[in-house]
Amino acid sequence: MKSQANTKDGKRWSTAEAYLRPAMHRSNLDIAINTHVTKINFDGKKATGVTFIHGAEKKTVHVSKEVILSAGSIGSPHILMLSGVGPKDHLTKFNISTVADLPVGQHLQEHPGLMYPEFWLEKPLSVTLDMMNSWKASIQYNLFGKGPIAYQLFDTVGVLKTKAADPKRGLPDIQIQLMPMGLGFDTDEVVYNTLGLDRNFIKAYNFSEHKTRPVMTWVAILLHPKSVGEIRLQSSDALDPPEIDPNYFDDDSDVKSLVESIKISLQFAETKALKAIGVKLRDQIVPGCEKHEYKSDNYWDCAVRTVTATIYHPTGTCKMGAINDQTAVVDPQLRVRGVRGLRVADASIMPEIVSANTQATTVMVAEKAADMILSGA
Ligand SMILES: Cc1cc2nc3c(=O)[nH]c(=O)nc-3n(C[C@H](O)[C@H](O)[C@H](O)COP(=O)(O)OP(=O)(O)OC[C@H]3O[C@@H](n4cnc5c(N)ncnc54)[C@H](O)[C@@H]3O)c2cc1C
After folding, report:
1. Which of 90, 111, 210, 313 is catalytic?
2. What is the spatial distance between Cα 158 and Cα 200, in angstroms, rounded to a whole number?
3. What is the pLDDT of residues 252-261, one digit of tens each?
4. CA-closest residue to ligand 1 atom 18
5. pLDDT in tens, 128-157
6. N- or C-end of the chain: fewer Cβ atoms within 10 A?
7. 310, 328, 361: which is the final residue of a domain?
């Protein structure tokens, strides 16, 4: 299907634009920007407030009802552990006294994304750099919020159940997003930095032709990885980022699903519809995979391990579960187990990563949290 996106006037419309801006003048709301939360404070097992750094000052806000933590799947477990809510052994290593011994940070599920293979198009149906840099595109975007600059990165989306999908679960294992451009498009290196792609790899892979020639990239997202990662403290200093261990491809079946997605892409390129627009595989050896026979399973395996990056969908680090579920951090009302006056409401509570991009589900979590809080649940 065609991808759906939250956009307005050709721009992405964030939750800050949609929810916060319209509410920011309410008398019962204070928003502090450039502010770093360092700790949730407890009196025994009851959360009493939040300490944060604002500019050069350290401040504390006391709560009369409860603290609602929404710092995301990296930030929420980080703040909880700094505050004494986390695995006791781990906290003890950093001399943090334990308020509640919970598996915080331990169920990191992500969507690794393979940006491979790429296909040339005979017809000019994709977005090229020349098109984007034209006066016409600039006028279309600035006056009407339309044209190639307003184009969202991923044009088409679909889900697949490959041969490697777990038959017991019955879920699709791959989401395909077709990108009507190539990575060589990124002249400012924004995407390279965001994806953490190695400069030497980029140079060796020779993306220069992407700037002028129509290209389509097959982006395959692994929807339900068996490999599970973890967020850990590096120190007890709140300004030290936590350690993020995504643990990609710990389980070989994750690689197999992505290898199958490449094989499906080659079949897809052979269909009548794609042949009609002159789709042809870009026959460029992936740097580092030269030793394998081209198009063999070992070669595809190497390509998967080389051209995969994060899609930025971390979830599960403050997993929701039943009150007696020892792997859960929050209960079904999103209340942190074993303490009072503290909830988590963000992507970190997802017990199982969703078969889709994560933003809409996170908004649903927040809407549900708001309903539960208002109804006193
Ligand atoms: C580059 C990128 C592209 C994406 N594209 C898509 C997409 O196309 N579609 C889609 O569905 N999803 C997309 N996502 C994923 C989506 O943005 C996330 O699933 C969603 O934002 C998660 O919401 P959240 O509230 O859990 O966390 P976040 O949106 O990360 O919000 C957490 C907030 O807490 C703040 N914070 C963290 N720690 C602290 C602290 N100590 N003190 C103060 N503040 C703190 C952070 O600055 C942040 O503002 C994308 C993500 C990224 C990064």
Report:
1. 313
2. 32
3. 999 999 999 9
4. 359
5. 878 888 999 999 999 999 988 888 778 899
6. N
7. 310
Indicate if 349 and 268 belong to the same structural domain.
no
Q: Same domain, yes or no, for 87 and 131?
A: no
Closest residue by CA, ligand 1 atom 34: 71
Give 358 Cα–ligand 1 centroid separation in angstroms: 10
Whether 191 is covered by a domain: the verdict is: yes
The answer to whether the CB of 233 falls within 8 A of the CB of 143 is: no
| Structure tokens, 265 | 């892409």
Domain total of the chain? 2
Q: Which domain holds residue 55?
A: 32-108+317-374
Measured between alpha carbons, how far is 256 from 249 in angstroms, rounded to an integer? 10
Q: Which of 136, 240, 117 is nearest to 179 (CA)?
A: 117
pLDDT at position 186: 67
77 CA from centroid of ligand 1 (Å): 14
Is 313 one of the catalytic residues?
yes
Q: Which of 310, 330, 349 is the C-terminal boundary of a domain?
A: 310
Mean pLDDT, rounded, for 215-241: 96
Specify whether the CB–CB gap between 159 and 172 falls below 8 A. Answer: yes
Specify the residue with its C-alpha closest to ligand 1, atom 38: 75
Question: What are the backbone dihedrals phi and psi of residue 165, each rounded to the nearest 5 degrees, phi first?
Answer: -65, 150
Tell me if 223 sits within 8 A of 353, measured CB to CB.
yes
Ligand 1 mutation pick, 11, 30, 236, 346, max ligand atoms within 8 A of CB:
346
- Does residue 18 sit within a domain? no
191 & 254 share domain: yes
Nearest alpha-carbon partner for 179 in 111, 268, 119: 119
Rg (CA), the chain: 23
Beta-carbon count within 10 A of 107 CB: 26
Q: Is 216 inside any structural domain? A: yes
**Ligand 1 pocket residues where CB is under 6 Å:** 35-37, 70-73, 75, 79, 194, 312-313, 346-347, 357-360, 362
How buried is 309 (Cβ within 10 angstroms: 0-12 exposed, 13-18 middle, 19+ buried)?
A: middle
